[in-house]
Amino acid sequence: MSKIPVFDIGDTLSPSKEFSRKVFREELERQGVENPPKYPYEGFNEMSVESIQEWFERDDIDADAEVAVEKYKEAKKERLKELEMFEMLRKIGKEIETPGIISDNKVAAKKFYKDMFEEENVEIEGFVVSEEIGVKKPEKGIFQEFLNRRSLSGENCVYFGNNIPRDSACENVGMQFVLVKQFEVFGDNWNGRQVSKLNFENVREEVTR
Questions:
Q1: Which GO molecular function annotations are given, in alphabetical order (predicted)?
Q2: In which band, very low, low, confident or very high, does the pLDDT at 209 lie, cut at 50, 70 and 90?
Q3: pTM check: above 0.90
Q4: I want to staple 108 with a disulfide (CB 3.0 to 4.6 A). Which of 36, 47, 161, 203 is the partner?
């Protein structure tokens, strides 16, 4: 019997920090900003116009935050298409089990992804982000919240993530952790299960082991 595949978002389903910095740099240059400063990924929310406007005001950037955020969202969707992630998730839902998501992320990001998944006919059951429950990985509460929403035990799930110290904490609720090395990896010395690329065949192999 297959287990439920559950995914992190940033640098697991798609590249995150360096991708964001590249998109904002190119957009600011397009808007006429010379030598734009590097997007401070850890301090702001690229899905929120208000947050990006705060960054612009802090660093005295003369640009349209609303346009920049929309350009970022468009670029993110196109990158996910290029990586065939929508296709992978649809196939997982059809041939394995409906996937879930657990992410240290904002509610605004969850809305963006949910709307995008709906447009792409991707079904997700159980989508937990840290901002909505006030608990971040590696605290086990965020993993337990997902299990509660799906009425599952941890032994029924395999969690795919890229942050070894944070994501491997899923094992504290009985989930199995698989390190995804396709994009940026945080932490080291992981000798457990891992995949070099996230695709349907690799996911299927890990959830049926």
A1: glucose-1-phosphatase activity
A2: confident
A3: yes
A4: 47
What is the domain extent for residue 170?
Answer: 4-15+82-207
Average pLDDT value for residue range 103-113? 93
What total of structural domains would you count in the chain? 2
Tell me the two tokens of residue 174. 């009985």
Contact residues for 74 (Cβ-Cβ < 8 A; gap 6+): none
- Mean pLDDT for 141-148 is 98
